[in-house]
Each structure stands twice: as structure tokens, then as C-alpha cells.
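ASSEMBLY PREDICTION REQUEST
Request ID: AP-0331
Submitted by: J.K., bench scientist
Number of chains: two
Total residues: 230
Priority: normal
Notes: Please return the full assembly, not individual chains.
Input sequences:
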Amino acid sequence: EPEVTQTPSHQVTQMGQEVILRCVPISNHLYFYWYRQILGQKVEFLVSFYNNEISEKSEIFDDQFSVERPDGSNFTLKIRSTKLEDSAMYFCASSEGGGVSYNEQFFGPGTRLTVL
Amino acid sequence: GNSVTQMEGPVTLSEEAFLTINCTYTATGYPSLFWYVQYPGEGLQLLLKATKADDKGSNKGFEATYRKETTSFHLEKGSVQVSDSAVYFCALILISGGYNKLIFGAGTRLAVHP
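STATUS: Completed
Returned structure:
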């Protein structure tokens, strides 16, 4: 069964460093998403991406964040200068479509980011 | 605004007990509703969904009915097992410009004891 994969599973970084989190969505999916979950809190939407551009972003997704689909398979989230409060589990998701009939999102296992 | 409210946990039950986790929503428009489950150390898995009023989603013995009149989507299971111990998230999705974003509740932790 197709699945969303994410690498690495755990990333430890120093405050101020850049990190890139990687995701491989399901191959025929066209819409891609990043969510994050700070430990013990709710899962929060960060950004959605379609047709090589951001469709929607939350207020969390400031200038320190960027997303990219560098090739036909990967979808990345970059944090330019990490802060302590960026420590969280980051989930990638993908969906086949964006309309009512195709809005099921499939989630990857997550990348746990720890900023020291 | 759009939001999801879940009953606070943790919920602690004995094996074979009946489970209800309450979920209510506020939405501008007509949402689709979901329950996701997160087992310890794992990511989010879709448990069940309902896309219109009075639909009942079901999976693995869990059920939830989309109640538009009470804006609710309560999760139920008749007989829980230890393996059901996890965090359960209620969520909704709205079509905003055709690009869907899931809005999650805070999650309810379920602990089932033998």
C-alpha cells in the first residue's frame, strides 16, 4: 500500500542552524502539506502546496519557513534559523485532490525536531 | 472561526468497556469530519470519516455519526481493547479556495487496562 515517508525520523540541531525536513508523498498525489505538533499539544496546520506554489499558510509559517518540491518526488520543509520553540514533531501529508471528493490526507510518520 | 473541541483526557477504561469521546465543531460552511489516531511513537492514522450529515463512519469497531443539528461527531466503541490505547484526534476540513487544511482538536488520550 502506498505511503508517505519522511526523513530523518529524528533531527537534533543547535539554535540558529538551518534544517531541512524531507518527505516523499504518495506518487499520484498533487496536494502536499506540513503540520506540526509541539509535545503534548494539538496538531497545527503550517502550509499547503499545489502546482509548485504555496496554496495556504498559517501564521506560524513565517519568513523563517519555506517549502519546495525540488524534483518529482520530494517535498521539503526548510527552517532557516531554528529557535527553541521550533522543537516539535513535523508531519508531512499528501492528498490526491483538493476538492470535496479527494480531500483525504495521508500522513507520514513524522520527523521529531529537537532544537538545543 | 473554525474549531474543534474534544473532551479532555486522559480517559482510562478497563478492557471491554464502552468508549465515548465527545467532539463538537464550529465551522463556517459544510465540513467533512474525521477521527485520527496516534499510537505511541507513531504518526497520525485516519481512523474514520464522514463527509455529510447523518453519515456514519466506522472502522475497527469504532463508529462516529455526523450530527449537523448538534455539530457533533462523537467517537464510540462498544468494547475497547488494550491495543486501542492511543491519542484520538477529531478533525474537520473545509474547502478554502480548494486547498484543504485539517483543523484538529486537542486530542484525547485513551488508556485501556487489562
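REVIEWER COMMENTS: Chain B touches chain A at residues 32, 36, 42-46, 49, 51, 89, 91, 93, 95-107 (CB under 8 Å).
SIGN-OFF: pending second reviewer
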